[in-house]
């Protein structure tokens, strides 16, 4: 297996890193409530995000039994519907499936293809298996393997999720590179022994001055250029 910079396998986060999750949710909210002003859309997006974040934390702490991302998205859509006065069941159901229709960033498909020419590339996402399957198809993301946190029954940054990728990689963790637009995700990967690359996106969780990731780049194509040069 080829090695560049000591790396054998590249693992990429999906939500926020490969696809514009907040942008896709905004689009779905506007479709669900035509004519809504942007201030309302912002409020509903916050309601959605806060619910999902809170419930994933409850799952990871053991306070709530595991529920996959599709369940949490459905709950979030129902909470938004309450706030927005949305009573059309079909509209709520379509809103709940917004996570399957997120658009890729401009460099996601090309950068992924370039990385895949040199390394086995794995997607590692908190999205459920069914959501991830349909999202990959919609966004045109082509992986050698795509893994869902559903198989670990917890969410990132729980170490069990990164172990899914390490098991699939079949090599020492220091030869596996985790790529993400979220510093919290990379901290979890680093704790699991993986190497790390922060990819800047308009959304996400930027590094703090105390973070020491192996790479920090402005996009996936930039990372591909750095990694594919011996």
From TrEMBL:
Which parts pass through the membrane? Answer: none
| PANTHER family registered for this protein in UniProt | HALOACID DEHALOGENASE, TYPE II (AFU_ORTHOLOGUE AFUA_2G07750)-RELATED, HYDROLASE, HALOACID DELAHOGENASE-RELATED
Q: Tell me which family the UniProt entry assigns to this protein.
A: Belongs to the HAD-like hydrolase superfamily. S-2-haloalkanoic acid dehalogenase family.
Q: Which GO terms describe its molecular function?
A: hydrolase activity, acting on acid halide bonds, in C-halide compounds
Pfam entry (one): Hydrolase
Q: Could you tell me which InterPro entries the record lists for this protein?
A: 2-HAD, HAD-like_sf, HAD-SF_hydro_IA, HAD_sf, PGP-like_dom2, S-2-haloacid_dehalogenase
Question: The organism sits in which domain of life?
Answer: Bacteria
Listed A to Z, the keywords are: Hydrolase
The identity of this protein, by name, is Haloacid dehalogenase type II
Q: Record's NCBIfam families?
A: HAD-SF-IA-v2, HAD_type_II
């Amino acid at each position: 297996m080829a090695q560049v910079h000591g790396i054998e396998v590249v693992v990429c986060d999906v939500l926020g890193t490969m696809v514009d999750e907040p942008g896709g949710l905004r689009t779905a909210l506007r479709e669900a409530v035509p004519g809504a002003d942007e201030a309302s859309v912002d409020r509903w997006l916050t309601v959605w995000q806060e619910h999902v974040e809170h419930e994933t934390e409850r799952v990871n702490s053991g306070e709530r039994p595991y529920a996959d991302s599709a369940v949490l998205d459905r709950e979030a859509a129902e909470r938004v519907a309450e706030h927005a006065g949305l009573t059309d069941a079909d509209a709520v159901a379509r809103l709940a499936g917004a996570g399957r229709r997120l658009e890729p960033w401009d460099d996601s498909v090309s950068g992924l293809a370039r990385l895949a020419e040199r390394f086995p590339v794995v997607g590692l996402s908190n999205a459920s298996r069914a959501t991830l399957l349909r999202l990959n198809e919609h966004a045109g993301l082509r992986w050698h393997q795509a893994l869902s946190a559903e198989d670990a029954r917890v969410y990132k940054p729980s170490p069990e999720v990164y172990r899914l990728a390490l098991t699939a990689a079949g090599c020492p963790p220091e030869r596996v590179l985790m790529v993400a637009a979220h510093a919290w995700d990379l901290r979890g990967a680093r704790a699991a022994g993986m190497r790390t690359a922060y990819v800047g996106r308009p959304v996400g969780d930027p590094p703090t001055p105390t973070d020491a990731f192996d790479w920090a780049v402005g996009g996936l194509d930039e990372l591909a250029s750095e990694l594919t040069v011996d």
